Amino acid sequence: MLINPNEILETIRMVRMEHLDIRTVTMGISLRDCAHPDIRIFNENIYKKITSRAKDLVRTTNEIQNLYGIPIINKRISVTPIAIVAESCGAPDFVSVAKTLDEAAKKVGVDFIGGFSALVHKGTTPGDLKLINSIPEALAETEKVCASVNVATTKAGINMDAVGLMGEVIRKTAELTAERDGIGCAKLVVFANAPEDNPFMAGAFHGIGEPECAINVGVSGPGAVNAALRELERPNLTEISEVIKKTAFKITRMGEMIGRVVSERLGVEFGILDLSLAPTPEIGDSVAAILEAMGLERCGAHGTTAALALLNDAVKKGGAMASSRVGGLSGAFIPVSEDAGMIDSVEVGALTLEKLEAMTSVCSVGLDMVVVPGDTPASTLSAIIADEMAIGVINKKTTAVRIIPAPGKRVGELVEFGGLLGRAPVMPVSGFSSEIFVKRGGRFPAPIQSLTN
Fold first, then answer.
1. CA-CA distance, 24 to 76, in Å (whole number)?
2. For the structural domain made of 26-192, what CATH number should be given?
3. Whole-angstrom Cα distance, residue 409 to residue 256?
4. Are 374 and 174 in contact, with CB atoms under 8 Å apart?
5. Comparing 26-192 with 214-438, is the CATH topology the same?
6. Are 202 and 189 in contact (CB under 8 A)?
């Protein structure tokens, strides 16, 4: 891959002035050879595997960060979904496995470890149920572990029994971490069409179709795109799209270079580059700010979904030209608490939960880092999940829900999480009940679009 000197200079400017960084270097590790019916031996096996494979990850990424002057914000690990590899263990729950993952993550110095996960889009096994029921306690008693559950795919439809269960799990997770405003829920994602190579938390896991070990990289870049658009004078939407494509190309080239160097030094296969625009609470480093630079008074105004669709399309086109390893989610994230512009839009009443749901039909993921009142019924949480899963299934795309019912908090109050998780105003939910609908359970059949063979 040839790099033009002008690209290097421009990248330096974007790093210094526009919050450009590598959001994450994530090492995916297969744990399939660690399975054992004795959970103590299984835990020993996964601890040894993770600490052996990832022992040089943090040191190597720090060296590369210093060498190129490009910030690498997070170093992470994803593993094979624990519900699969721990299935044969005879333990009543998998909380000890989560604690082992946490200890391994602390040993190697990574920020998060993902893969306390289950894939239940077509049904559940005893191991799946053990894992799902272990999630609240596991997330309450660990620091770095992230969990995810895939409850729907376009090919299989929606497992509404699992959707109903996840509403209860989210409520219990919030209650067990109530002293920190339900922060455990910030480490839990419910998916439709979950990708197996996603480097971003909390939804990362190392899929069963992945190699023994791989390096997956996630970039950021909303600040760079926002700055590029604000330099234009009265552009039309075609010109805006072209500028976004060119900027995404440059951002992706940087991520591609870092991924290849990390992989080479660690002697690990380079997996994918996720070119998603991942915002931060920093002013200007915001997807909402990009949409407003297109001409919207506030993110959430009429036209927001169209503007987000244009942004997502341009990011994908520009990034795909820069790398042959594009994967993961790759588009634009709209996490409320992690995006300063989104927070402002909620606070002034421009952005509602219903508008966010509409936006998820064209963004990379879905309802992300949304805070709702702590007394929101579990059935309402499940119904919100069901809506998002339907959008993903019908549109053949990934959608997800990371929702936090903040214990004791009411609409309009502010919840502070700190760091990249930011802060979020508590958003209202519908006061009308969905309980009977959710309790019907069963399978939401796969749509006609699934019949592609």
1. 7
2. 3.20.70.20
3. 42
4. yes
5. yes
6. yes
Q: Where are the domains of the chain?
A: 26-192, 214-438
Per-residue pLDDT of the chain (453 residues; tens, 9 = 90+): 455 555 555 555 555 444 577 889 999 999 999 999 999 999 999 999 999 999 999 999 999 998 888 888 899 999 999 999 999 998 899 999 999 999 999 999 999 999 999 999 999 999 999 999 999 999 999 999 999 999 999 999 999 999 999 999 999 999 999 999 899 999 999 999 999 999 999 899 999 999 999 999 998 888 888 888 988 889 999 999 999 998 888 888 888 889 999 999 999 999 999 988 888 777 667 899 999 999 999 999 999 999 999 999 999 998 888 888 888 888 888 888 888 899 999 999 999 999 999 999 998 888 999 999 999 999 999 999 999 999 999 999 999 999 999 999 999 898 888 777 888 899 999 999 999 999 999 999 988 888 888
In sequence order, the 6+-apart residues with CB closer than 8 A to the CB of 53 are 27, 29, 213
The CA dihedral of 379, 170, 387, 345, to the nearest 10 degrees, is 110
Both structure tokens of 12 = 């330096």
Q: How far is CA 345 from CA 193, 300, 425, in A?
A: 29, 7, 10
For residue 448, give every residue at least 6 positions away whose Cβ sits within 8 Å of its Cβ, in sequence order, or none.
none
- 8 A C-beta contact, residue 70 and residue 21: yes
Q: What is the largest CA-CA distance in the chain?
A: 66
CB of 33 closer than 8 Å to CB of 213: no
The owner of tokens 């470890």 is 113
**In this structure, what are the phi and psi dihedrals at residue 259, rounded to the nearest 5 degrees?**
-60, -45
Calculate the CA 103 to chain-centre distance: 22
Pick 214-438's CATH classification: 3.40.50.970, 3.20.70.20, 3.40.220.10, 3.40.830.10.
3.20.70.20
Neighbours of 355 (CB within 10 A): 18
397 vs 369: CA distance, rounded Å: 19
